[in-house]
Amino acid sequence: MSFPDIRSSILLTDLYQLTMLQGYMEQGMEETAVFEFFSRKMPPQRGFYMAAGLEQLVEFLEQARFTPEELEWVEKSGYFSKSFVKYLERWRFTGDLHAMPEGTIFFANEPIARITAPLPEAQLVETRLINLLQYQTLAASKAARCVLAASGKPLIDFGLRRAHGAEAGLLAARASYLAGFAGSATVLAELLFGVPVFGTMAHSFIQAHTVESEAFEHFAEAQPENVILLIDTYDTEEGAKKIVALAPRLKDKGIAIKGVRLDSGDLVDHAFKVRKILDEGGLSDVQITASGNLDEYAIQAMVADQAPIDFLAVGTKMTASADVPYLDCAYKLQEYAGRACRKKSEGKATWPGRKQVYRHYDSQGHIDHDVLTTADDSQDGELIIEKILECGKRISSPIPLPQSREHAAAQLQRLPEKLRLLREGTTVDVQVSQALRDLAQAVDAQR
Amino acid sequence: MSFPDIRSSILLTDLYQLTMLQGYMEQGMEETAVFEFFSRKMPPQRGFYMAAGLEQLVEFLEQARFTPEELEWVEKSGYFSKSFVKYLERWRFTGDLHAMPEGTIFFANEPIARITAPLPEAQLVETRLINLLQYQTLAASKAARCVLAASGKPLIDFGLRRAHGAEAGLLAARASYLAGFAGSATVLAELLFGVPVFGTMAHSFIQAHTVESEAFEHFAEAQPENVILLIDTYDTEEGAKKIVALAPRLKDKGIAIKGVRLDSGDLVDHAFKVRKILDEGGLSDVQITASGNLDEYAIQAMVADQAPIDFLAVGTKMTASADVPYLDCAYKLQEYAGRACRKKSEGKATWPGRKQVYRHYDSQGHIDHDVLTTADDSQDGELIIEKILECGKRISSPIPLPQSREHAAAQLQRLPEKLRLLREGTTVDVQVSQALRDLAQAVDAQR
After folding, report:
1. 3-class DSSP state for residue B384?
2. Which of B303, B319, B335 is the last residue of a domain?
3. Which chain A residue lies closest to B138 (C-alpha atoms)?
4. Does residue B79 or residue B36 have the better pLDDT?
5. How many domains does chain B have?
6. Which of A160, A170, B129, B271 lies 20 to 30 angstroms, CA to CA, from B215?
7. Is the pLDDT of residue A163 over 50?
């Protein structure tokens, strides 16, 4: 049996989706269901989230179907009836998708995606929908914090190696670029998503040579257009002095050193010392890249110290969203067959029905507050949730990633000062409209 | 252009691997390099790690090569010479791999994989090697802690939706099964890895019905062999009473209720109350599954309270390894062209040369201490690192996952009591042999 592409396989799902589907089929429960995806709570370390992953979700919904191999598995598993397998053969996603465009800032309880489809379609897409939206949103949100902290210094994603698998590395490269990173070290992210790709050198290149400055020279000759040399393998400042000594020899060969990279120790302290050595050696145009355990807090400190660092490479802590490695999120049934509903499990109660978010700005153009209301309750303010798919088809062409990136940058400009400064425990007020409160009361009264 | 499979693409790598390779090619640096993958430090929340991911690494090494599309990208990128593209066309992994078998327990500074290959081969595989080993090891280690905490209660992986992408979800299903979980909810993990698959039902199934007990009945009829009903959508104990009321009617149809699931609130408290309701209703053979925010600490508390819970479903916190979402790990050049070497960057110094680990047990058969030494320093104790690939080929057939799972279970039995109890800040002593200390001194003296 040939293995399906893990990214598009409809069996990248929980078994219970299939068992529930068989139940729906047998009961003829195929009326319209409305599910919404949202984050229940913001942890204190996140005052805002940035929506991401919509493009991958749309591709998934458009292509989702059972291949003959996958149907064979369903049949052979012994859990399901023959008629159910026949039914799955015809299964397609024919519903609507409403969503916040990628790069949009959002807060607790605001749906970033809404599926409106016959129940068995809306149900089956749950697992992958959450999987795609939660991770890219997580990575984009962490990356956006780094972008805010960096105050204009360019950032590069170095996180693939410590990402949770192949797809996480690729999606983090995409999400961080969306959030404002300059690019990524991950080559495949350029092929798949057009993310600009950057690279320097590793310690092993230095170590494989017996003499450090020989390693520098060999690397420069091999990559004359992109000479960024890693100088901390043995002693950072000694490394910088070797750069100064090497520069004239390279210049004679027509090669200019573009930059050096620091990857260990007190990066701020080393940056000041290395900058001085380079400047005194006549290399004031050689730029300094810093890497190693960086996150928004380390970057804030570097910027506050005015460290002479030109590029920041952020890896593990962004890719793994290390301080908040998962989103407290859910995809919940909000309406079925025209009847609004909600889950009331302890600590997990949700607002019922189809919802819309209206955003209000203060006089400086910063977000003041949001209003969460029912989709049919027209309000003042900026409407945030748009229709993306109708009857399973896009209603307009996909938004190119650079355009979503511009939207994300504009959204970050709209954050109130306290959120731009990443102050812990602050967020934006999401007001629940009277219309939505009334609906919740009506739903509870019905039961 | 057709997109490569993200899991096997050789371009799932950092750009600098390719730029360094061009440097190696131009300098004719193709002598044998030895790299080792290890974790530098154990955080206080991890007294041990469990090695995992070797099987996926072997598949990657065996199949790694540049496809015509990938070569086209390299050529078009503008970073590389024509002769380099020609060179890449012939690139294959022809080296040796030594590793700890999957499921083996290890500690700080102990290599779990060693690559011995011409430098450009050993270099290029770095990024994906780290990516594969770090994540599965992370997930297996977290899962192993849950297994220890559960004291024999079966565990099921529910984590796909909040995993970091598709591959993370699948590899977590595999790694947790390796570590001793009974199986996973992820369907595709059965197809890909033969992990047993389990499922119950979601709140949406309940909500889509107007009457909760009707939902229970419909689900039972659709899945008569696997009736596990989720009873917390509105009120857990009321849900349990509806189960008691429903059971006789289902029995008449020849359907037995296998279990109920609790997913919110104080799970221990609900479990006691639900158990009592079920027992008094004559349903003492109906089992209780608990899910919702579980990790090893919550499980320890449940077991300490003797909560009447039969199955534990663990999701997000295992899949994301939430308290330790990345491994402090590295893949470092330890020898080149017969010359041992080491990196000395501040706080990141490593032990040089090819290494072996010898394990020593106490009189009860528990791990007492390990000795880290040079690969040619034969010692007493159990030798942990084995040869897996020679000249790019497996020297014996792949170990089936169930067999690795047995090895993992035996390894957990070998942990000293303090580690089995998950006591924070405790680990096993890794002694550095005199031979390795001498080598490090000799390497430092050379520079």
Report:
1. coil
2. B319
3. A164
4. B36
5. 2
6. B271
7. yes
Q: Are residues A285 and A361 in the same domain?
A: no
What is the overall mean pLDDT for chain B?
A: 95
To the nearest whole Å, the CA of A270 is away from the closest chain B CA by 11
A36 and A112 fall within a common domain = yes
Cα angle: B14, vertex B18, B22; to 5 degrees:
160
Pairing mode, if any, of strands A259-262 and A228-230? parallel
- Where do the H-state alpha helices sit in B200-346? 203-208, 212-222, 236-252, 267-280, 296-304, 316-319
% of chain A exceeding 70 in pLDDT: 98
Chain center to CA of B19:
31
Round to whole Å and give the CA distance between B157 and A397: 38
Query: B346 in a domain, yes or no?
Result: yes
Quick one: B173 and B256 in the same domain?
yes
Which chain A residues contact residue B138 at CB under 8 A? 164
Domain-ending residue, one of B275, B296, B319: B319
Position B7 in a domain: no
* Sign of the dihedral defined by the CA atoms of residues A25, A31, A32, A38, in that order: negative
Q: Which of the residues B6, B73, B88, B127 would you substitute to probe the A interface, choosing the one with the greatest number of A C-beta atoms within 10 Å? A: B6
Q: Which residues of chain B neighbour A322 with C-beta distances below 8 Å?
A: 325-326
Mean pLDDT of chain A: 95
CB spacing of A207 vs B327 below 8 angstroms: no
Query: At residue B2, does pLDDT exceed 80?
Result: no
pLDDT at A3: 60
Cα distances (angstroms) measured from residue A1 to each of A66, A74, A416, B5, B293 = 15, 14, 54, 17, 36
CB A427 within 8 A of CB A137: no
Contacts of B234 in chain A (CB under 8 A): 344-345, 447
pLDDT digit string (tens) for A233-246?
999 999 999 999 99
Q: How far apart are CA A288 and CA A282, in angstroms?
A: 15
pLDDT of residue B200: 85
C-alpha distance from A348 to closest chain B C-alpha (Å): 8
**Residue pLDDT, tens place only, B371-404:** 999 999 999 999 999 999 999 999 999 999 999 9
Mean pLDDT of B195-212: 92
Shortest distance, CA A74 to any CA of chain B (angstroms): 9
Please indicate, yes or no, whether residues A345 and A249 belong to a single structural domain of this protein: no
Residue B427 one-letter amino acid: T
Q: Spell out the residues 6+ positions from residue B252 whose beta carbon is closer than 8 angstroms to its own.
A: none
Considering the entire predicted model, what is its pTM?
0.97
Q: Are residues A114 and A146 in the same domain?
A: no
Mean pLDDT is lowest, of A79-88, A124-133, A156-165, A337-346, for: A337-346
Q: Do B188 and A329 touch (CB under 8 A)?
A: no
Q: Identify whether residues A171 and A113 lie together within a single domain.
A: no
Question: Which chain A residue is nearest to residue B73, measuring alpha carbons?
Answer: A191
User: How large a percentage of chain B has pLDDT more than 90?
Assistant: 92
Mean pLDDT value across residues A20-36: 96
Assign residue B294 the CATH number of its domain: 3.20.20.70
Residues A182 and A241 in one domain: yes
B436 inside domain: yes
Q: Out of A35, A197, A345, whose CB is closest to B233?
A: A345
pLDDT the model gives residue B1:
43
Which range of residues forms the domain containing residue B310? Answer: 140-319
Round to whole Å and give the CA distance between B80 and B21: 10
Tell whether B125 and B249 lie within a shared domain: no
Q: Do B16 and A163 touch (CB under 8 A)?
A: no
Candidate from A17, A265, A317 with C-beta closest to B347: A265
Token pair listed for B207: 């909500």
pLDDT tens-digit map of A263-275: 999 999 999 999 9
What CATH number is given to the structural domain containing A347? 3.20.140.10
Residue A411 inside a domain? The answer is yes
pLDDT value at A66 more than 70: yes
